Design the sequence.
């Protein structure tokens, strides 16, 4: 439809190209508005992806948690007995448990402590899908040996670089000497700036107030022929209400929902996107308004020749769509580059996604179309009687 409209009426393109300086300002303004929206949506998506990455890395068909669990930042434990009870149900093949708590990692160079998320697992059973963890978790059988997240914040020290060169790195965790025996990649998130994996025995030594029979996450592996939804429904119906049975993605969504709706983060990023959208409307409106004001006699002449307001509105919408295309392209390219810079600086998983690009493109079209509709009020004031 748009291509047919453009073929019939090249007037919009000619008017835009007549004032190249004005066109450049408009394109720059729209690109700036698009960059604002891309950055806000990109940061929001990256932070949420980072927050749920550990959940999605857990190796399990079903997950057992405390019903009060909301975030890794403040975990809620439950009785290990509930996890063992699931072994009595058809379809359940094996179970595994995970302890989670926040510890204090000491940078051996600066001697400064920094909070880090500590995962306690059984080193003889796979708890994560990551091959890096599976290949190295046998080292955790000895006390105070750990696997370190090399994608964490640099404030923890040059752990990854030193370990790769010397195969050795020693420091303190919760004021106890530990030795790094392997690396894995997870990254910083809302809950923590980094992660470290230890054995369940080491975990209980690091957190002396933890009880062995109180676990954070129960991992349930089903038999190959079992129906996950059927087993989940049965467990949810028959287990006591002091535990909750979820598929891993539902577990991840609990974390995302906490940060999205339980804090001001979702509102802040939404407000930032709205500001970019409004900025774009104002910029495009000013450009179209100036164009209409400058060519008001010509528009009045077109009315006198029989052209309707709808036709003239079509011209303005064409100008708006042309501006949307010309402004979106540089905004997209610059945002793509800013994502790469941000990833290198923060290690957040911020990447250009197709659905986000489509979302910003739709917002850009709406933004420009709304501006055209507002500018139409000035166009309606073009009276043929003023010309003659």
Sequence:
């Amino acid at each position: 439809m748009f291509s047919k409209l453009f073929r019939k009426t090249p007037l919009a393109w000619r008017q835009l190209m007549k004032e190249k300086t004005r066109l450049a300002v408009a394109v720059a303004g729209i690109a700036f508005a698009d960059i604002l929206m891309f950055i806000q949506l990109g940061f929001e998506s990256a932070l949420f992806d980072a927050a749920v990455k550990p959940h999605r890395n857990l190796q399990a068909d079903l997950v057992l948690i405390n019903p009060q669990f909301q975030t890794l930042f403040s975990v809620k434990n439950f009785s290990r007995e509930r996890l063992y009870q699931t072994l009595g149900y058809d379809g359940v093949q094996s179970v595994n448990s995970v302890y989670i708590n926040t510890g204090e990692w000491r940078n051996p160079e600066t001697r400064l402590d920094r909070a880090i998320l500590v995962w306690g697992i059984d080193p003889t059973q796979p708890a994560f899908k990551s091959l890096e963890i599976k290949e190295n978790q046998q080292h955790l059988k000895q006390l105070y040996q750990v696997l370190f997240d090399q994608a964490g914040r640099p404030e923890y020290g040059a752990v990854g670089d030193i370990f790769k060169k010397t195969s050795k790195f020693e420091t303190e965790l919760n004021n106890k000497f530990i030795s790094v025996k392997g690396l894995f990649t997870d990254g910083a998130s809302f809950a923590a700036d980094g992660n470290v994996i230890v054995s369940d025995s080491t975990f209980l030594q690091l957190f002396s107030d933890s009880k062995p029979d109180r676990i954070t996450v129960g991992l349930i592996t089903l038999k190959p022929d079992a129906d996950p939804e059927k087993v989940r429904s049965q467990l949810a119906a028959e287990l006591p209400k002091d535990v909750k049975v979820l598929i891993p993605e539902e577990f991840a969504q609990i974390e995302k929902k906490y940060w999205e709706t339980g804090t001001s983060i979702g509102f802040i990023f939404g407000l930032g996107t709205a500001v970019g959208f409004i900025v774009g409307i104002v910029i495009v409106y000013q450009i179209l308004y100036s164009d209409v004001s400058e060519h008001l006699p010509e528009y009045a002449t077109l009315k006198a020749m029989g052209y309707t307001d709808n036709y003239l509105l079509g011209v303005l919408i064409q100008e708006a769509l042309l501006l949307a295309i010309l402004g979106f392209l540089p905004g997209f390219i610059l945002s793509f580059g800013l994502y790469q810079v941000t990833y290198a600086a923060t290690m957040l998983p911020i990447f250009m996604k197709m659905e986000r690009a489509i979302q910003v493109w739709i917002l850009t079209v709406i933004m420009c179309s709304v501006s055209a509709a507002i500018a139409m009020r000035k166009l309606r004031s073009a009276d043929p009687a003023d010309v003659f």
In short: The first strand starts at residue 62 and ends at 65. Residues 20-57 form the longest helix (38 residues).
